[in-house]
Design brief:
This protein has 191 residues and is mostly helical. Helix content is 76%, strand content 3%. The chain has eight helices and two strands, in the order H-H-H-H-H-H-E-E-H-H. It has a two-stranded antiparallel ribbon.
Length: 191
């Protein structure tokens, strides 16, 4: 989310995409969006207690899929991008809460620290690879700012990246029902 929202919010409108926020305004915008997780993560914890970590991740994936899809369809204007961003962050709050719940439930009590640590490393690695993919896509379709002659990503490139993020959210869903996650669900009732 960060590698998409941070540059998108600062890109000049004269390029046909972006929101033209200053760096300070973009930071405030991102901080406000991130504040969503202070609300949604505790709710996700309650959902996880009542249902399961798997259900929590599923709900988060569906929420994020919705947010990314809406953002890909319409990313014109601070208000709409902010609304879609809140939806995306709400979904991520559920996903992260549920993923850590899955890790805890599937790990022996003596190895929860190792499991969550490895989970964090895997998440960080995935975000780094994702950021490189995002920037590769964005750099392949430039739009020249007519005022400064500086190249920025085109609106089409941004849309492709946003669709890619929606596909990533959707890809979580089948993963929940196959492989090690499904085996953990069969072995432990809490998962």
């Amino acid at each position: 989310y960060g590698p998409i929202f941070a540059p998108f919010t600062q890109q000049p409108l004269s390029t046909g995409a972006g929101l033209a926020l200053t760096a300070s305004m973009a930071g405030a915008f991102m901080a406000a969006l991130n504040g969503t997780s202070f609300i949604t993560s505790p709710i996700a914890g309650k959902v996880m207690q009542h249902f399961s970590p798997r259900t929590t991740v599923l709900i988060g994936a569906l929420i994020s899929l919705t947010g990314w899809s809406l953002l890909a369809l319409n990313h014109q204007g601070v208000m709409l991008v902010g609304i879609w961003g809140v939806i995306i962050i709400a979904g991520l709050g559920f996903i992260f809460t549920g993923c850590y719940g899955l890790l805890v439930a599937a790990s022996p009590s003596t190895q929860v620290g190792e499991a969550t640590g490895i989970g964090y490393i895997a998440m960080t690695l995935a975000m780094a690879v994702g950021a490189q993919i995002i920037f590769s896509v964005l750099s392949n379709d430039p739009s020249i700012d007519p005022r400064t002659r500086v190249a920025y990503p085109s609106d089409a490139a941004w849309t492709i990246v946003m669709i890619g993020a929606a596909i990533g959210a959707a890809a979580i869903i089948p993963v929940l029902f196959c492989g090690a996650g499904a085996a953990a669900g069969r072995n432990r009732k809490a998962v």
